[in-house]
Write a structure and sequence with these properties.
single chain, 186 residues, AhpD-like, oxidoreductase
Length: 186
Amino acid sequence: MTTAETPPTVEALRALLPEAAKDIKLNLQSILSGPGSLTNDQKWGVAIASAIASRSEPLRAALVSDSAVAGVEAKVVEDAKAAAAITSMNNIYYRFRHMIGKQTYSDKPARLRMNRLSSPTTTRADLELFSLAVSAIHGCERCVRAHEEAVLERGISEDQVHDTIRLAAVIHGAAVALDEVVRGPR
């Protein structure tokens, strides 16, 4: 790979993917460079938040680096990072409450700070879109439903929601495939 000072590019990481991940390699290229309903900022914000949620440092670094080349402002990256962190926390909490299904837990206040979600540096719709991708990766049904409803209320189309989830799925698949390359087979 590259040194700590020079992050890899997405293209360099794609080249590392083995034959078993050929579909991921092709999907990664097309979803980041092909047509779609997401704006440039939305596409890169979703990709970065998804890489963080997928716990892939090489992919996160490459996407952040490539997003700057693609003209994405730092505030989009910061909102993607915030969405990944806060939504990850919420996914654990709300998924627990949903899985347990006891009203006594649902009646208790969460008391989890999430002020950043109400004051994004981009738009609330985009921050919710980034959070939707993270919730889908973590499999929190209640959070996915809440973020999907929130983005639709803010003018995001169902096509954009669909493209967000496709992008999150490809990024997560790439993270899994890259983990095998970086760590080696187990």
